[in-house]
Amino acid sequence: MSRLAICPGSFDPITYGHLDIIRRGASIFDEVIVAVFNNQSKNPLFSVEERMYLIEESTKDLPNVSVDASAGLLINYAKEKNAQAVLRGLRAVSDFEYEMQITSMNRKLNEEIETLFMMTNNQYSFLSSSIVKEVAKYKANVSDLVPEVVEKALQDKFK
């Protein structure tokens, strides 16, 4: 049986921090599905389709990574895909409390699917999509924060 992990997020847009977790997950699991979910507490800059395209372009060198989207509950999506795990990145202690709540609820709904946390590489510990959007909005250089395809998409959005 192949080991499948779902790497969920809003990815608005994908950053090098996200890619760090995806790449490391792809080296552990046979298959990783990067699943775009809409966070209802956020107002996205990019459409789901745009985010999927940016992720596909940013991960095209990873043959065991695919991209999908879902509007439902993560744990239901993971079960539907026969995933063994949900892969989440942690940047700092501030992420932990939120992630613990989500993980506890997911375990309550389906205890067969594990959640695995990876600490983000220290060089990306400050990085979030929100910060990238804010910096890009003011025409600052984001080339060391996001892949080139994302940098261009941000420039186009903020013309």
What does it look like?
There is one protein chain. This protein is α/β, with parallel strands linked by helices. It has a single domain, classed as Rossmann fold. Helix 2 links the parallel strand 2 and strand 3. 33% of the residues are buried. InterPro entries: Cyt_trans-like (IPR004821), PPAT (IPR001980), Rossmann-like_a/b/a_fold (IPR014729). Reversibly transfers an adenylyl group from ATP to 4'-phosphopantetheine, yielding dephospho-CoA (dPCoA) and pyrophosphate.
Contiguous runs where pLDDT drops below 50 for at least 5 residues: none
Order of H and E elements: EHEHEHEHEHH
Give the CA-CA distance, first to last residue. Answer: 48 Å
CATH architecture: 3-Layer(aba) Sandwich
Overall residue-averaged pLDDT value: 92
- CATH class term: Alpha Beta
Strand percentage, roughly?
15-25%
How many strand units? 5
The helix tally amounts to 6
What is the CATH T-level topology?
Answer: Rossmann fold
- List the domain count as a whole number: 1
Q: What form results from the Cα inertia axes?
A: globular
Secondary-structure-derived class: alpha/beta
Architecture blueprint of SSEs:
Elements: E1 4-9, H1 16-28, E2 31-37, H2 48-58, E3 65-70, H3 74-80, E4 85-90, H4 93-109, E5 114-119, H5 129-137, H6 148-157
Summarize, please.
This protein has 159 residues and is α/β, with parallel strands linked by helices. The chain has six helices and five strands.
From the structure above, extract its key features:
Rossmann fold; 5-stranded parallel β-sheet; 6 helices; 5 strands; magnesium; cytoplasm; pantetheine-phosphate adenylyltransferase activity; ATP-binding; ATP binding
